[in-house]
Amino acid sequence: MASASLFKSSAVLDKSDFFKGQSLRQPSAYVGRRNAVAPSALTVRAGSYADELVKTAKSIATPGRGIMAMDESNATCGKRLASIGLENTEANRQAYRTLLVSAPGLGNYISGAILFEETLYQSTVDGKKIVDILAEQNIIPGIKTDKGLVPLAGSNDESWCQGLDGLSSRSAAYYQQGARFCKWRTVVSIPNGPSALAVKEAAWGLARYAAISQDNGLVPIVEPEILLDGEHGIERTFEVAQQVWAEVFFYLAQNNVMYEGILLKPSMVTPGAECKERNTPEQVADYTLKLLNRRIPPAVPGIMFLSGGQSEVEATLNLNAMNQSPNPWHVSFSYARALQNTCLKTWGGRPENVKAAQDALLTRAKANSLAQLGKYTGEGESDESKEGMYVKNYSY
């Protein structure tokens, strides 16, 4: 069980909330989709965890902070290690994850960390539980709960996300281990349609996952990633994103998901990776905020954008542009490679490079913290941090 020293301000969870979610107050109600039905059909409840879910979501969505995604599967983590010449062993994965979570002062910029199942139960190289190290940093532990993408029969070579079977019992176990939020990634491909079947499957799967997660005390991150694959322009991405998010929120309401107790992890509205026309951060921000205003209820506390293969600097610039004007949400980040790429290369698997690698991680975390506040300038960035990280058909 994670340390109880987490969450010290009044806006975040206290000790009793962190460990005793089942003894919380009566659930709050939330009005879902506006249909001409009896009032009782509009009541949305999230079980005995309702108040805790809201507090957790608000704790993650605090000013100047975002999420560090370190939930790559062991196989994908192996690819990262291979890029710096390391073998994919548990000891090497442990060393890298220890480096990340123990970076001094990381909690100043990071409010939550998404972990892979191995990491949730793992200790650092010094024998301390990783969830306890995160707690000491005032970082809430999260967990990836989906089981990955598989081909969607009857579609245009598209995918669906598996993992609903057994999700309730797994979520309950993750909660007991110290996790307080979770992530489920499904994808939509523009070059392949997207077909109505793929969009509906993505939205329904996310809604069932969200309902099951809330029922077990975990704040669900809802992530229908619109892949960067393709030659399409930003207008086409915007069109598809509107379609996807309309479907997602329809099914969230159908499944009685409490909006105040979720977080979103959308893609930014950008052109396809192979599109010849590129857009400025201001244009990306304009399209993305337009999408949010048209599709996302203000009740949702946090919009934690994924980087989706953008360079470290590009992801930060786009986030900063979105925070140049007021909006009803906490518009922030949930980055993996866009936080860790330079850090990993700096480390190179060498113990003597740990401090330099942690400094690189903190540099990126601070840059995105400033971007969340709309104060990032982009000055002093290295050429390496401007290198794109797009991978076609990316999966982890």
UniProtKB/TrEMBL annotation:
Single GO MF annotation: fructose-bisphosphate aldolase activity
List the keywords (alphabetical). Answer: Chloroplast, Glycolysis, Lyase, Plastid, Schiff base
Q: Which reaction does it catalyse?
A: beta-D-fructose 1,6-bisphosphate = D-glyceraldehyde 3-phosphate + dihydroxyacetone phosphate
What the entry lists under NCBIfam families is as follows: FrucBisAld_I
Stored Pfam families: Glycolytic
InterPro entries tied to this protein: Aldolase_I_AS (IPR029768), Aldolase_TIM (IPR013785), FBA_I (IPR000741)
Q: Which CDD domains match?
A: FBP_aldolase_I_a
Instruction: Tell me the pathway.
Output: Carbohydrate degradation; glycolysis; D-glyceraldehyde 3-phosphate and glycerone phosphate from D-glucose: step 4/4
Asked if the Swiss-Prot or TrEMBL record annotates the protein with the keyword Plastid, the reply is yes
Q: What is this protein called?
A: Fructose-bisphosphate aldolase
Q: What is its EC number?
A: 4.1.2.13
Name its cellular compartments: Plastid, Chloroplast
- What GO terms fall under cellular component here? chloroplast
Q: Does the keyword Plastid apply?
A: yes
- Which top EC class is named for this enzyme in its record? lyase
Q: Which GO terms describe its biological process?
A: glycolytic process
Q: In which broad location class does this protein mainly occur, judging by the first location in its UniProt entry? A: plastid
- UniProt family annotation: Belongs to the class I fructose-bisphosphate aldolase family.
